[in-house]
Amino acid sequence: MDNKNKTLLIVILVLVALVVIILLITLIPKAGQQKPVCGNGKCELGEDPVSCPQDCKTGGLVCGDGKCEGAEADNTTQWYCPQDCKPIKCGNNICESDETWQTCNQDCCAPENAGANKELSCCQGLKLVDTCYGPMLMPCPGMHFYCTKCGNGICAEHETQWNCPEDCKSPANITRGVEGFVTLTQGDCMPPITSKCNKTFISTKVNVYNAVKENEMSGVYFKIIRTPVATTTSDSNGYYRLELSNGLYSVMVIDPLNSTVGDYCNSRTSGYACLINVTNKVIRLDIDVDHATH
């Protein structure tokens, strides 16, 4: 055998030896290491949620437990479980046992006080009302559409003189003064706005002072003790209304998260805080107590 053939033989033997070594490392368990046993309650080496769902639960998902949860309903993932998640025929106008108004509002009507961030199809006898008011509150993050019994003569939760005037009577009319809504904003409100940004209407004390100068404020709080010229409390829908004489005023509210700090005001106009100029008419002023991340 010449040198060239000897070299080729050596290369082949080396490659064969490497393959054998790799197979031995892969297939033969290390000393003391046992083969995984599916069903022993331990997710061991060699097991995964697909090969042994009894031991390896991902996010609590167990195919075959009769519960259709999370990714089990997604037939594009490896966690899809048709055994638990039967195909839903949403859109056939039949509210089937595995459908709800949340998963298929096309087939299943929404009950009383059901809420969502988009329009709903309410059950018979219910009316869809929108609790979102005013340009300062648009768009409204979170739930603001609700199914109510508007028209039954009872001013119930989520109903106001604006979205259900037949049940909720308007307060006494005033010819001049101020009215508006008080809201509390919390959460992550960085663009794009998501459900983590939460704006709610709140009931809190509203104080009206003779015009307060900007330099009298400590940030967004008015800490100087001064008797208000008028005061009221916003209702459960955040609405307030006060009759005032003509003049310049500052309208502030009590921050429910910092009620002992002072009156809250986060707007500035011409060197004044939360300024309104009443001149024989009712001024609209919405106040948002902002504790959100922007």
Summary keywords:
294 residues; mainly beta; Immunoglobulin-like; 1 helix; 24% strand
What does this entry look like structurally?
- The chain is mainly beta and 294 residues long.
- The protein has a domain at 177-293: Carboxypeptidase-like, regulatory domain (Immunoglobulin-like), CATH 2.60.40.1120.
- Helix content is 9%, strand content 24%.
- It contains one helix and 16 strands.
- The protein has one helix at residues 3-27, and strands spanning 115-116, 127-130, 145-148, 177-188, 197-201, 205-210, 221-222, 230-233, 239-243, 247-254, 263-264, 268-269, 272-273, 275-278, 282-284, 287-293.
- The strands form four sheets. Strands 6, 7, 8, 10, 11 and 14 form a six-stranded antiparallel sheet that branches. Strands 4, 5, 9, 15 and 16 form a five-stranded mixed sheet that branches.
- Strand 12 (268-269) and strand 13 (272-273) form a beta hairpin.
- The N and C termini lie far apart (81 Å).
Secondary structure tally: strands:
16
CATH topology of one domain: Immunoglobulin-like
Broad shape: elongated
The termini sit apart by 81 Å
What is the helix/strand order? HEEEEEEEEEEEEEEEE
Q: Output mean pLDDT.
A: 81
Give the name of the CATH superfamily of one domain.
Carboxypeptidase-like, regulatory domain
Structural class: mainly beta
Secondary structure elements and pairings:
Layout: H1 3-27, E1 115-116, E2 127-130, E3 145-148, E4 177-188, E5 197-201, E6 205-210, E7 221-222, E8 230-233, E9 239-243, E10 247-254, E11 263-264, E12 268-269, E13 272-273, E14 275-278, E15 282-284, E16 287-293
Parallel strand pairs: 4-15, 4-16
Antiparallel strand pairs: 1-3, 2-3, 4-5, 4-9, 6-8, 6-10, 7-11, 10-11, 10-14, 12-13
